[in-house]
Inverse folding.
């Protein structure tokens, strides 16, 4: 590259160019020279079309010219609608030919087509234009994926990775203050340059700048000039174009500069997402590009005076922008570009903050938004069955059912991200994702459950089912398990005795329209199921309410994870309908394969409810839920009310839920859940600890009932956390360990829990003799 910058440009005039065109390409036309840094380029008007004759520098490597042509052919093949020049062959069909200039030097020559429009250099920069340029930059990069050439590894002075190697040109800067500024910049950006080998890289155009982008009436028409093409980090290519976009606004207010930068990155990321590590160094790479520009300009402007105007065209805005950007500290620079790229939340979320608990209490109501554990965890990352705290410690997640296919499942993430990049809109439009999701869910349901209504959460699902039930039956009462949890809305909190205060739960203070019944114990019979419902109905009638809905979680999770027999469940369903009530199976905690390949616990219990409610495990944590019911119930509801939720089953939420179904099937997680769950319970039983009173569950959920008090059980939960395992506590007495992990658990994860459980139980039992105030 050094010879390219030191030797003079080709000694070829416009007349010489006309002669080359005729003799080599058989083209006749009017020739006008175009500005160029090191080559000679001529615009040719043939009367029918416009072409460009490119005369390469004598020091140019022929393989580089071959690479430029190959790159253009590659783009033409993979993205034919991306407007770039096309190669016009010579009379002998060659893409490149040799000519000898008047000074005796030989040059490679070729002819390419002209793209309509004028370059953007010197024009006004607007957010709209910056966004278009960002998209064009990313699109050009994506089009070059998969392309490689032996010459791509060339050393190139314009490659900002090698900015530090240009320090010898500092002496060419006459202003001593500016020379010192460059010294400071080079020192500052060295750490960022050292990280580039770890970042995504490929062959890049490396010069998608305002001088090489063409437009008509501010609509981009193409990108030209592949002369700087080389293999480099993708973020370097991004920084080159971003720098070019920011130069025209270098004199504006800081807020205007930020607006332009944000618009550019918005357009860029519509095509290619910026990675966290790339955003972290982007600001320093802009400094590197500006430094490269002023150093090469200072040296070459003095050495090649006849082309100084072209060489020095970027000097004034480059210096101005460089000086302004250097006013920011390195930390402020990183924060700015991370925020503009949308990666700052990731960065800050991964860092520990000792003040976070206090800050949270100050703004989230303290105990109004309670946290788990005496010393709350700051969880910043999840992966499969694991979560990680801000200090980097890994915990086995045995508690969270919402990420049903595992934390941050890459396939679900991919589906969400791709759909979010296309469209997320309210649910009043036709969209295939929504329809396909409903079809697939209904295909898993028994005959009669033929209508799916989407919501955003399990709470909303139960709330909507309650509204439907009251309108369908004309009744106003509900029956729930006496230690149930179904959600947090005004209506549904009345169905969640688990969350009732002691005062509310005392006799005579519970909601008048809600009656409770006991969860089954052991292998309760059909008669037990009937008697539970009949007792609740009698209580409701005494309060002036007839039953509209009987609600239960088929695993009785909040009541302590209890296995109900088929006969008990059928007795409850039949008794509900005999009393004029509808029956709701809340599958938020038990569904999506946790209890087997049939996906839903009520199916294995041999009953068909009137409502099935689903919640956030449906989207692996993305907010989506559903009510599945009979068409006649839904139509009766619509005679009196309308239901609409803006983002219920939005295209993104539906994509998440569809992908969860795909993953459950592809990874055979329901079958794995049955196998691992049974293994887990057997291993706990085999511990032979007297403190374990019972081990219950079906599929990948276990209720480990302890012969301990609520505080002692809490100590076991805390001790397990210290040993790197997260579980919960449930049941009326708070003495049942709730193990309800993501379905990606294997026997190895079960073994980890069991190995931590024995010493934790010993510690919890031992707490009986300790000072309770500790």
């Amino acid at each position: 590259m050094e010879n390219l910058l030191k030797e003079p440009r080709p000694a070829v005039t416009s007349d010489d160019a006309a002669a080359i065109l005729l003799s080599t390409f058989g083209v006749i036309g009017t020739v006008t020279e175009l500005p160029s840094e090191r080559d000679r380029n001529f615009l040719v008007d043939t009367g029918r079309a416009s072409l460009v004759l490119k005369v390469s520098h004598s020091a140019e490597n022929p393989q580089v010219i071959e690479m430029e042509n190959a790159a253009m052919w590659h783009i033409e093949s993979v993205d034919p609608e991306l407007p770039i020049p096309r190669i016009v062959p010579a009379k002998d069909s060659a893409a490149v030919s040799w000519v000898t200039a008047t000074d005796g030097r030989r040059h490679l020559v070729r002819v390419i087509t002209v793209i309509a429009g004028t370059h953007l250099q010197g024009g006004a920069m607007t957010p709209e234009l910056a966004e278009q340029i960002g998209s064009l930059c990313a699109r050009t990069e994506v089009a070059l994926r998969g392309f490689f050439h032996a010459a791509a590894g060339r050393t190139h002075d314009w490659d900002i990775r090698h900015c530090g190697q240009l320090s010898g040109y500092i002496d060419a800067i006459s202003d001593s203050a500016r020379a010192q500024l460059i010294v400071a910049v080079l020192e500052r950006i060295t750490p960022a340059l050292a990280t580039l080998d770890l970042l995504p890289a490929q062959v890049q155009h490396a010069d998608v700048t305002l001088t090489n982008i063409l437009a008509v009436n501010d609509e981009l028409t193409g990108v030209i000039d592949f002369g700087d093409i080389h293999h480099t980090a993708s973020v370097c290519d991004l920084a080159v174009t971003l720098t070019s976009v920011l130069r025209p606004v270098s004199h504006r207010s800081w807020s205007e500069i930020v607006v332009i930068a944000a618009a550019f990155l918005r357009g860029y990321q519509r095509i290619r997402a910026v990675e966290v590590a790339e955003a972290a160094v982007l600001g320093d790479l802009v400094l590197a590009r500006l430094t490269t520009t002023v150093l090469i300009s200072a040296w070459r402007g003095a050495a090649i005076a006849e082309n100084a105007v072209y060489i020095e065209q970027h000097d004034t805005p480059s210096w101005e922008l460089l000086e302004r950007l250097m006013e920011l500290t390195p930390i402020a620079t990183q924060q700015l570009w991370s925020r503009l790229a949308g990666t700052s939340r990731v960065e800050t979320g991964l860092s520990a903050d000792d003040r976070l608990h206090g800050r949270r209490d100050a703004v989230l109501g303290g105990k109004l938004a309670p946290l788990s554990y005496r010393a709350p965890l700051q969880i910043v990352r999840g992966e499969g069955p694991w979560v990680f705290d801000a200090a980097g410690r890994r915990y086995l997640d045995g508690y969270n059912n919402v990420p049903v296919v595992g934390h941050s499942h890459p396939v679900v993430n991919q589906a969400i991200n791709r759909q979010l990049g296309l469209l997320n809109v309210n649910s009043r439009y036709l969209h295939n994702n929504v329809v396909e999701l409903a079809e697939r869910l209904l295909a898993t349901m028994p005959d009669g459950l033929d209508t799916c209504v989407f919501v955003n959460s399990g709470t909303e699902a139960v709330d909507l089912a309650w509204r439907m039930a009251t309108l369908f039956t004309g009744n106003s009462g509900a029956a729930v398990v006496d230690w149930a949890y179904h959600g947090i809305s005004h209506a549904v909190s009345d169905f969640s005795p688990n969350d009732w205060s002691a005062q509310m739960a005392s006799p005579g203070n519970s909601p008048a329209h809600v009656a409770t019944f006991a969860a089954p114990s052991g292998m309760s019979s059909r008669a037990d199921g009937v008697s539970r419902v009949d007792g609740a109905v009698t209580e409701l009638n005494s309060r002036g309410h007839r039953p509209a809905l009987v609600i239960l979680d088929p695993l009785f999770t909040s009541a302590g994870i209890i296995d109900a027999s088929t006969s008990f469940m059928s007795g409850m369903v039949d008794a509900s309908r005999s009393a004029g009530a509808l029956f709701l199976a809340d599958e938020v905690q038990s569904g999506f394969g946790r209890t087997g390949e049939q996906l839903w616990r009520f199916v294995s219990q041999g009953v068909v409810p009137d409502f099935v409610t689903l919640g956030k495990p449906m989207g692996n944590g993305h907010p989506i839920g559903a009510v599945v019911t009979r068409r006649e119930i839904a139509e009766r509801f619509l005679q009196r009310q309308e239901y609409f939720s803006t983002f219920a089953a939005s295209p993104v939420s539906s994509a998440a839920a569809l992908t969860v179904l795909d993953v459950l099937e592809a990874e055979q997680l329901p079958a794995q859940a049955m196998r691992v769950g049974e293994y887990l319970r057997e291993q706990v039983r085999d511990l032979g600890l007297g403190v374990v009173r019972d081990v219950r569950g079906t599929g990948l959920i276990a209720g480990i009932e302890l012969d301990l008090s609520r505080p002692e059980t809490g100590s076991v939960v805390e001790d397990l956390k210290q040993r790197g395992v997260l579980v919960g506590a449930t049941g009326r007495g708070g003495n049942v360990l709730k193990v309800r992990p993501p379905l990606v658990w294997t026997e190895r994860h079960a073994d980890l829990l069991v190995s931590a459980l024995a010493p934790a139980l010993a510690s919890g039992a031992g707490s009986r003799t300790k000072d309770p105030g500790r």
Notes: DSSP finds 26 helices and 26 strands in the chain.
